[in-house]
Task: structure prediction
Amino acid sequence: MSEFGAPARRPYRVGYAPGAYDLFHIGHLNILRHARSQCDYLVAGVVSDEMAEFAKGRRPMIPLVERLEIVRSVKYVDAAFVETVPDKVETWRQVRFDVIFKGDDWRGTAKGDKLEKDFAVHGVDVVYFPYTVHTSSTQLRRALDALAEPLAVVEPLIAERR
Result:
């Protein structure tokens, strides 16, 4: 709050937090919470199934409609947007945000450097938040795949006995 009782102005007006948000976990929540604390209005970009497959080489485990509803329901998110193009500047042309938020696993990478360069031209800041190392969708997916592996071996044996 400001000294006059009005809400304190945040550094940015409109923020954008893109992600697949597959297997929603505490890392996703942390990014959205931190992002909302930096802007007056937060738009979460949820990448389409096709875009996730293009970027990561596999489709999300949770379908887009469900991921969108989960993200839209988070109290820190003012709006959710389906991201269907790989070019973040094209997304900016549609959403018009002042800042884009990413996990700091992007900082200093070719992708992060390109993002910063592309947005500098448009006056959009790139803000990095700490990546939640102990939990990631990739780790969760690996754990689920490992659990499914024994079933793939055992199920044919069970079928043979019938």
Remarks:
- The two ends are 70 Å apart (CA to CA).
- The mean pLDDT is 86.
- The first strand starts at residue 12 and ends at 19.
- The CA atoms of residues 49 and 59 lie 6 Å apart.
